[in-house]
Amino acid sequence: MKLLNHLINLLFPRVCAACGNILLEREDTVCTTCRFLLPKTGYELNPNNPLAQMFYGQMPFNAVMAEFFFSKTGKVQHLIHGLKYKGCRENGIFLGEEIGKSLLKAPDYQGISYIIPIPLHPKKEKIRGYNQSHVIAEGISEVMNIPIAEKCLVRSVFTDTQTKKSREERWQNVKDIFELKKPQKLQGKHVLLVDDVLTTGATLMSAGKALMQVEGIKISVATVACASN
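RE: above sequence
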């Protein structure tokens, strides 16, 4: 069996999803070097971080964080691009696990009852084959041992991609697109709202608006990445 695995790796070498270099035998998805170099924000330990400040006076989120800084040519971009457009689900699991490890040490993220991934519209999810935010949530769930609240939040309106839209266009594009289901399940609960990249915060605001209809709910936010500036 070991010889067969060596032969398979020779013909179809496993490569790092972040840098493209060949993975060593005990490495998985992302090489050891890239794991060390991925630009973590540390925002989960800073309640007043710049992402949290984006929502002050607009949405009463309990806490907001992104695990990594994002740049258009960086390693995090390669991981997210592979997840969203190349069917690399393992990238999402890895990214979710990294978020989960950080949140386990963050005081503001304790006592979470459910994870809620930002949903895709069924048409878009059918085209992509899966919801990337749900895959990330699976990684978080595995590390934190917190269940995913399935179908409690749905996207009822099909929208264009947010890419290349201005801030105002993003807000209009996602206004009132989410619908709350099974609100009784979330009453009085602390939930973790999960998305891939936080830019203007428009999508999270729209989702938060729907979830805030639930009596006694507390919402924290975790995303994979945010802009470095």
